[in-house]
Amino acid sequence: MAAKQVLEDSVCCTIGTGADTSVWDDVWIPEEVARPARRAQLEVDKDLKVHHLIDPDSKEWKPELLEEFIHTDDIQRNLEIKISKSGRKDGYCWKHSKSGHYTVRTGYDIAVKQRRKNHFAPMTEPSITPLKQKQVTTANPQGDAQIFPWLMWYVWKARNEKCFNAKDISPLDTIQLARHEAETWRIAQIGDKLYETSDEEQTEHQSRARDTLVAEKRFRCLVDVSWSDKDDWMGMGFVLTEGEVVILQGQKCAPRTQAPINAEASGLILAMQETRDRGFDGVNFGSDC
Fold this sequence. Notes:
The chain is built from 8 helices and 6 strands; from the N terminus they run H-E-H-H-E-H-H-H-H-E-E-E-H-E. The protein starts with a helix and ends with a strand. It is α+β, with helices and mostly antiparallel strands. Helix 1 packs across helix 4 (104-117). The radius of gyration is 27 Å and the shape is flat.
């Protein structure tokens, strides 16, 4: 139940074509907790989709329809949402990561914060990390001594299956699983040592190739944006240099986008359009995203 609440509070629909998103049922209005749009009138079409509010030719919002159906306080938030120009399907955005994609780490952090806020004591399982470390430092363990940490782990898991799922796991299966995991882990440690040097050489080669490609570019353009979920507007700016000489600068204020990653993309698009319109080729673009 806790995980469900975290998802409900942290996910927002992203608008591509708008064909799959309900205006009144789906959480597509970006706020601290995303929500459906509020109505401008009591009687509305319950099947209204977001794409009905979008001009199919220009791929822009229809202001007259927004004013007719959407509450005045939500119209500005509508205009902040960027509509796909390429026909991308609607999706979902995880608001706790810069990329908009869900990660286990951010999901866990939010769940822990919510549990602490509700004063629930965290439920944890025993850790076998100290046992693994002891296993590594033991000189040439023999026989079943090698599988002891994994055996304890799978005994614990079998106990949980019995208590919570009424599922019986035989002792033989538990031992076989522990032996398999122990052998897999032992081989992985050998593989890490074998490939450590090779990975370092590959990384160095890729770094040199990347540096060479950047050096071939004559111009360098650095892009940055100012974005806050507490503001209705955001700022974008770029600086174009040739060597150490600044030859072009630009900045623009625009309605705040749905997520920081969208703001970075808007800043890059602005810089690319301005440099292209002025005839600059061979530009290396950089951002802190």
